[in-house]
Design goal:
Blueprint: H1 2-7, H2 13-24, H3 30-52, E1 62-72, E2 75-84, E3 90-96, H4 101-111, E4 119-122, H5 129-135, E5 140-143, H6 154-166
Parallel strand pairs: 1-4, 4-5
Antiparallel strand pairs: 1-2, 2-3
Helix pairs in contact: 2-3, 4-5
């Protein structure tokens, strides 16, 4: 998690240290986190370059977004995700104790670096409405109600179903 925060969210090592202490009651020196980043940076770069060399994340017609509940130290949090429907790659995520538009803005502002899809498929959570409309002006927001709709969010629902047992904290 510390490396994720450093490499993907561009957080400082001091902020990560404070975050780990507040959230998990784990004391890790910011110097230790800096050492981890130096140690694993080359490895992560090689792995990600190898995995993503044939994937064009900017050329997608459709993204799927969803949030799922996870419990961290007994407290409810939401893991927000956006995936590219063609590659099934997670292009953005956000962890928060809240499910408001502010968190959706954060999620989509991060995803925006991969371009603008023609459509974003979500459930009917109202928190998605304004962030999608203002972040992706020419993108159609498709809100699905149930698994029986013609267009579904099954791709990301399936992903979160498989992630939940893995990320229990």
């Amino acid at each position: 998690m510390a490396l994720d925060l450093y490499f993907l969210n561009e957080s400082s090592t001091r902020r990560i240290s404070q975050y780990l202490f507040r959230l998990f009651n784990v004391k890790v020196s910011h110097v230790t986190i800096a050492n981890w980043t130096k140690k694993f940076a080359t490895y992560f770069r090689l792995k990600s370059d190898k995995l993503l060399k044939d994937v064009d994340l900017s050329d997608s017609d459709e993204w799927h977004a969803d949030e799922t509940v996870i419990f961290i130290n007994g407290k409810r949090h939401y893991l927000w995700l956006v995936i590219n429907s063609e590659s099934r790659v997670i292009i953005s995520y956000h962890l928060s104790p809240y499910r408001y538009a502010k968190q959706a803005f954060s999620l989509f502002n991060d995803a925006k670096k991969f371009g603008s899809p023609r459509a974003i498929v979500t459930d009917r959570l109202p928190s998605y409405n304004v962030p999608i409309k203002s972040t992706f002006k020419d993108t159609v927001h498709i809100k699905v109600q149930s698994f029986r709709d013609d267009i579904s969010n099954n791709i990301i629902e399936s992903l979160t179903k498989h992630l939940n047992p893995i990320i229990k904290v």
